[in-house]
Amino acid sequence: MNLKNFLFTCILFFNVSIQSQSVQKIDSAYNNYFKKVREIPHLHLNKTSFLQGENIWFQAYVFEQNSQKLHNPTSNLYVSLFDESGKLKKQKLIHIQNGIGKGNFKIDSSFTNASYFIKASTNWMRNFNEDVSFSQKIIVVKNRETSAQKIKKDSFFDFQLFPEGGHIVANTFNRIGILLKDANNKGIEISKGTIKDETGKEIDVFKTNSFGLGEAFLPFKENQKYIFEAILPSGERIEVITPVVKKLGITLNLINDEKNQNVIVNILTNSKTLQNIHGKNYKIWLHNTRKYIHYDLKFDESKKVYAIILEKSNILKGINIITVFNEENKPILERVFYNETNNLLTNSIKASITSKINDSLKVTLTNNHSEKLFISGSFLPPLTKAYRPDKNIASSILLNPYIKGNIENAAYYFNEQQKNRLVDLDLLLLTQGWSKFDWNQIFTNPPSENFKFENGIDITFAFNRKILPSQQVQMQYVDDENNENYALTIPLNKNNHFTLENSFITENTMLHFGIKSGENLYKISPSISYTNTFIYDNINKNQIKELVNTPNELSNFSYLFDDYIMLDDVIIKSKLQDQKKQENSALQMKVISKYYNYIESFYFGTDKYGFLNNRSGNAWNVNFGINNEFQSIVSTSNMVKFRDYGSLSEPIFTDKKLYDPSTIVVPFGFSKTKEYYAPKYPSFSEKAYLDYGAIFWKAGIEIEANSTFEITIPDNNIDSILLNLEGTDELGKLLVKQIQIKK
C-alpha cells in the first residue's frame, strides 16, 4: 500500500507546545553534550588507485561541526596509512593553517598488499564518543595477479530488514527498510522481490536500487511473521523473516515530500497501546547537534495516528534527527532525514585550456562565485579508473558526522547530476536506523578533555652543565617550510630548562646549539623532550572487513622509478654512477644555497659570519654535513669569516676557533610539504597509463571572488582531461566539481 495515500486519509494533527517544563532535562543534557568544539577532517586525494612508484597526494580540510566552516585554530592533523589487516604502516603529522594543509605518501616497494586505508584525525577528536575521522580505501595496482581467497557459499549475502523508528508494532502500518549486500559490502540491485505471509501467500513486492536499498509498507498483524524473498541476478533465492512484532508500542513514519517541500512526521499506535498511554505526554525532538526544536504530544484515547507537517524552509538544513521520548524522557523512536541545503556550490567554477607552450598547457580556472575559494584539483586521463572515492567533501561534512554505519559511495548523494539521489539518500537513512549519537551517552557521559587540543609542538631543552651569568646559550635552525632562519638566545629557568612552545618544526630539522662566552661559541648539547607528534590510531574493522577478495587491478607497468626518462615511448635508463654523482653535486649545491640564503642572526662582535650571496651575513655553522668534500674545505680553517664592505662581503679564512656549536637532528616534527612531481611513465598511450596514471595535481589553490587562477600542466598528448575539484569558501559552502576539459 502507498504510504503517502494511507497517511493523508487518516491524518490527525496535534497541537505544538514549544514551552514545556518536561524538556528541561533533555535540554540541559543536550546542550552540555554538544557544547565543545568538534572537528571534522576531510582529505581530497589525487586518486584512489595507484601504481607502485607514484605518490598519494592530498589536500586536508578541517571543519568545525557546528558552524560547518573551516576551523582556523586546528594546527595538528594526523594522517595514517593502514594495511588491509588494519595494521598501521605509516603516519604523518600535517600542519594545518587556516583549516587547510597538504601532504603526500610515496607508494614504494614496501606496499606489497593490494589495498590500504588512509585515515585523518586529530588528537582532540579522541575526546568524543563518535568517530568522525576521515577514511578511504586505496588500491595499489599490481603488474601481476595474486591468488584469490576461497570463500564459503553461505557467506556471500547480507539481507537485513530495518523497521522505521526501530521496531514493528502490531495492528498498524509499518515501514520497513531493506538492505541487500554482497560479501564485499556492495549493494545488490534486484527488480523484484516478494513478501509472503506464514501461509506462503504473496502480499506485496519490493525492489532494491544499485546500493541494495529498498522499502516496504505493510499492515502487520499480531503474532504474524512475514517472509521477504529476493531473487538474485544469479537466479539464487534468499530470504529473511521480519523481526519480532510488538503487541504494544508506537511507531514512526516519515515522508520527505520534495514536491511540496514538506516533511511529514507521523506517530502511529494501536488500540491496546492507547489504553496504557492516553493522557500521557510524549515529546518529539527535531535536532542536528547545532540546534533543536521540541514539540509536546498528548495521546487521546481514540486517536491512533498523529502527524505534524514541517515546512522545509522553516527547519534545519542538512541532516536532521527526529527523536520521540516517552513520559519518562526515555528515547523510544528515532529517524534521520535530510533537508536539502544550499551549501553546495554547483556552477561557481569553470575550467578551460587557454594556451599551449611547448610541452605544457595553461589551464585557467574561473571563479564565478562572490566569495574566495580554497580548492584542490586532480588532473587525470578522461577515462580513468583511478579516481573512485567513496566520499567527497560534501558527504564528509554533511553526512558522515551523523551516521554510524558505513556508506557505499557516499559521494553519490551530493552529486546534483544524479536525479534520484535524494530518494536514494532517504532509503539510506531509513536503513541506517538511529543516528550516531547515543542518548545514553548524551544523558550520562558528556565529553571530557582527556586529550588536549594541540597547537604545534612544545619542545623542552634541558642543559646539564652549569651556565655562568656571563654566558648565553644560543640556538639556531632553518624552517624549510617557510625558508626562514630562526636564531635566539635561550632564556633558561633556574633548572637550566627552556621550552619552545607551539613550534612548527619539521621532521629531521637540524638544531645548532652553542654556549657563548665572550667572543667564542662552544659546544653544548641538551637533552630534548617534546609533546605528542604521534597518536596510537586504528582503523574501524567494519571498514576493512571483506569476506572475499575482489579481482586485483592489474597493469603492465612495473615499479615507476624517478631515474627513467622518456624518448619516443622507449625507456632509457641513465648510467647510474654518473647520474648519481651529478645529482649529488646538484643536491649539495642546492642545499648549501638554501641554507646560506636565509641566515639572519648570530652576532659575534663587530664581524659577521656566514654565506649570504655577496651580502653581509650572520654567523652560522657551515660544518653540518653537506658532504665530505665540502667539509674538508671548511675544516682547513674551521670557519669562513665574512668581513662587511657595504654591499659586498670579502670571505677570509681564519684559524681562530670562535664557532664550534653542536648539531642535533630531531627525529620528530611536522611532515615537510612537497610540490607535486610525477614519476616517469613508460608511455602515455598505453592502457595502464590511461586507466591508472596521472597528469597533474595542484593543492593550495586560492581564487579570489570573480577572478581567475592559472595552472601550468604537462601536455601528455591526450585529447581531453578530467579535472576533479573539491574545496570550500570562507562561509562554509562546499565545492565538488568534475569537469571534462577539451583541448
UniProtKB/TrEMBL annotation:
Superkingdom as given in the UniProt entry: Bacteria
Gene3D superfamilies: 2.60.40.1930
Organism of this sequence: Polaribacter gangjinensis
Protein name: Macroglobulin domain-containing protein
